[in-house]
Amino acid sequence: MINKEKIISLLEQTVSTNIGGSFQYESRFKGFIGELDFPRFASQVWPGVDLLPGGFLVSPISDARSTINPIHFNISTREPSDFLEIYKRLANLGCSALFYFQFEVEKEVENWTQNEFSSDFISPPYKVYEYRKDSECFEISSKDTFCSLFEDKSKIPKSKKIPDELKKRFRAKLVEFSQTSLAELYFQRLVFDTLVGGPKVHGSPSDIDYVAHSKRRNGYVILEVKEKDPSKGGRPGFGMDVPRIEDFIEMQSKTGMRVFYIVREITDQKSRKFLRWRSIKLDTFISHLGGTIQGGTGMGPKNDKNPTKICPVQHFDTIE
User: Fold this and answer.
1) Given pLDDT bands bounded at 50, 70 and 90, which one contains residue 105?
2) Which of 46, 69, 125, 312 has a CA-to-CA distance to 96 between 20 and 30 Å?
């Protein structure tokens, strides 16, 4: 339990370096719950499927979409060879570079040390690899090579003070997950938030929650996992941001990996009691979309406009 609590504390610190305030902090941690819970469920219903983290796509161009001259990077404790086929496919998005950060598996947090990310954070040792598109293999690289692909911001934002009550609410939920899962999430945020999100100029980032590999079929699919309650007013349904839909259409077309939208359905925004898992193919989702509405702002400023399209609940399958 001590190790879990320390990792959660580190995760809180890391996220606080790259958000606008409490509203964005809450949105980020709501997303973490669905992403952490899904592998536990998937292992029960899809025993022959290997679930891998999908990593990030981000443009080094300010305010650009994630698929414009993107840089792809992923973070995990797994071997780089596990990701070869995924990187080969993602390279077809026209990525200017693809990197992989591999952290060592070290269960005892007290053995972690300060690293070159920041003196404020600790982690086990890690290695950085760059995927070479010409030879379709990984070569050893460095954090500095990765960081040189982005320009420095003229002013680095300071960490935001988050109310203890808000942190306490999410700690009670996060502690239910395994130490391994929490550590992997922390490593991902450590790289993204402290190397790119906070100090560097970049466009709108796009994270790929998971890539599922069916060993029996030798196929790969992209999974977008969200915790949501059905929309209110009109026909109940689940939505997705319009830019996100556009990104997934491009990913599916260029990588050959089909996209599935996975929803951890909850009762409402306040109690957030779990109901069931649902799924839908991207193509089916798109074919049943209604008009555009203004959705939640997610990680953006509170008053941002966020065009969202809704697909009615009845078109989603229940995963059992």
Assistant:
1) confident
2) 125
Selection from 168, 210, 248 nearest residue 36 by Cα: 210
> What total number of domains does the chain contain?
2
Clarify whether residues 146 and 34 are in a common domain.
Answer: yes
Q: How far is Cα 74 from Cα 125, in angstroms, rounded to an integer? A: 16
Given 3-state DSSP classes, what are the helix, strand and coil percentages for the chain, each rounded to the nearest 5? 35, 30, 35
Torsion, Cα 43 282 319 85, to 10 degrees, reads: -20
Please say if the pLDDT value at position 138 is more than 80: yes
Instruction: Give yes or no: residues 192 and 290 share one domain.
Output: no
280 within 8 A of 260, measured Cβ to Cβ: yes
What's the pLDDT score for residue 299?
A: 43
Spatial separation of the C-alpha atoms in residues 39 and 17, rounded to whole Å: 27
Range(s) of the domain holding residue 310: 210-318
| Region 208-231 average pLDDT | 93
